Amino acid sequence: MTKIRLRINGVTHDVDVEPRWTLVNVIRDKLGLTGTKLGCNGGVCGACTVIMDGRAVPSCLIFAVEADGKDITTIEDLEKNGELHPLQKSFIEHFGFECGFCTSGMIMTAKELLDGNDNPTRDDVKEQLAGNICRCGAYTEIIESVLGATGPSKGGKKIG
After folding, report:
1. Average pLDDT of span 111-115
2. Are β-strands 2-8 and 71-73 bridged in parallel, bridged antiparallel, or unpaired?
3. Last residue of some domain: 41, 75, 109?
4. Residue 141: how many CB atoms within 10 A of its CB?
5. Rounded to an integer, what distance in angstroms lies between the CA atom of residue 156 and that of residue 149?
6. Rounded CA separation 31/89 (Å)
7. What is the pTM of this model?
8. Are 40 and 60 in contact (CB under 8 A)?
9. How far apart are CA 113 and CA 3, in angstroms?
């Protein structure tokens, strides 16, 4: 076992891990943050996406020891004081999910885009989400959900 320090959602965790454990396994199994989903376990589906040091990354491809000392944000950190993040609200308003399995990864991937671009185009959103798979096929609604959370006031664009 190796001791690592992770800062997840603003809280520092000292965790004993085996060098072969992935970040998604530590987040879910050791820290109990189950909003991050394990889908393909090969970096293809995007369900396990978290923000690490400002970048959206597939946590199934990162060994936990590689994340030592990193600042990590999971879907659990987006809601503040009972208020959903604009992306979360928009996914509800625009029906950006069906089964919901991919939703946390989609939202975290979209968050990286919106953190650097208040007014992305539809093509920007499509390119950003290219590494995320929705098995239900709700892509149109997902794109509308991301666009619905854009703009300087985060009140969204008119979709249509």
Report:
1. 96
2. parallel
3. 75
4. 19
5. 5
6. 26
7. 0.91
8. yes
9. 32
